[in-house]
Amino acid sequence: MTRARRIDVALVLWPSFLAAGLASLLFFAAVDPRLLRDAGPRMFEDLDREAGYALGFLFFWLIAAVSSATSLFLVRTARAESPPESDGGIGP
After folding, report:
1. For residues 77 and 71, what is the distance between their CA atoms, to the nearest angstrom?
2. Which long-range contacts (CB under 8 A, 24 or more apart) does 34-40 make?
3. I want to staple 23 with a disulfide (CB 3.0 to 4.6 A). Which of 7, 34, 60, 89 is the partner?
4. pLDDT, position 45
5. What pLDDT, on a 0 to 100 scale, did the predictor assign at position 82?
6. Averaged over 55-69, what is the pLDDT?
């Protein structure tokens, strides 16, 4: 992996990790993972509280990583802006 690629990975994963931590903190302050277990699909019926927190954090991290990667992609592929046209030296 090249140095530039490692920097890009760090630029995506670190802010998304922090955002996922904040999102988990705010979300799980109001919602108990056991309620999600009971309301979710049957594949989660044996899920304990700690696993619910972990899955929630990973979900938030995935969403934030996609957002960060999209932002990085848009910045890297943005067209160069053309300089403003001169009006012949007349002031504002």
Report:
1. 10
2. none
3. 60
4. 79
5. 58
6. 96
Q: What are phi and psi of 41, to 5 degrees?
A: -65, 160
Helix (H, G, I), strand (E, B) or coil at 58: helix
CB contact at 8 A, 57 and 21:
yes
Residue at token pair 């309301």: 39
| Joined tokens for residue 26 | 């705010």
Task: Enter the pTM of the model.
Answer: 0.77
* Pick from 65, 6, 74, 60: nearest CA to 28: 60
Using CB atoms within 10 Å of the CB of residue 12, give its burial: 0 to 12 exposed, 13 to 18 middle, 19+ buried.
Answer: buried
Which pLDDT tens digit goes with each residue over 22-58? 999 999 999 988 887 777 677 777 888 898 899 999 9
Q: Do the Cβ atoms of 79 and 51 come closer than 8 Å?
A: no
Q: How far apart are CA 10 and CA 65, in angstroms?
A: 11
Taking the C-alpha atoms of residue 57 and residue 9, their distance in angstroms, rounded to an integer, is 19
